[in-house]
Amino acid sequence: MSRFSYTVRMKQESPPKHLDVNAFARAATAIAGQDLLSGYDRLLHETQRLGAESRLNWSARGELRTDAAGAEQIWLHLIVDVSLPLICQRCLTPAQTAVAVNRSFRFVSSEEAAAAQDADSEEDVLALSADFSLKELIEDEVLMDLPLIPKHEVCPVAVKLAAVDPGFETAGSEKRQPFSVLAQLKKDRPD
Fold this sequence. Notes:
Blueprint: E1 7-9, H1 21-26, E2 29-36, H2 41-46, E3 55-66, E4 72-87, E5 94-108, H3 111-118, E6 124-127, H4 134-144, H5 168-173, H6 180-188
Parallel strand pairs: 1-2, 5-6
Antiparallel strand pairs: 2-3, 3-4, 4-5
């Protein structure tokens, strides 16, 4: 746990597009808010532009930790919850799908260090940037937590599980004469 108390700024609508994560963690700050889904283009694309007025709840908390070697580590804890109208893959109607993200990120000095440490770490490792977009991180994390196959628990409409083409059975029973078409073309050809 951190040795700092947290400063909380509540009721911020949109998450900051530019967040100095280092300063945020050192100040042990926590922020939270609600945002409309309409502000997240990639999520709207996934919902086929449905639910633009849906609320996305988010909170972020910065923390400075000391590792076993005594080095400072910068952490960001992110919580997001939203209900998205995704298209059910059984009945093809909108299905309200709850998505909840609760993830912690450790920040390191560069992209190279993040890539090297991420594979061996249980936590997600990101590169520090004074121009970090919390909004993009939120959208990325929600997108990664979307179900591969959205569906209702119980579909509101009857699901058609078979498709039958009335002409399919009769078409297969007719014996085809492949060269009869050529013969007909030869007859119809003007000399």
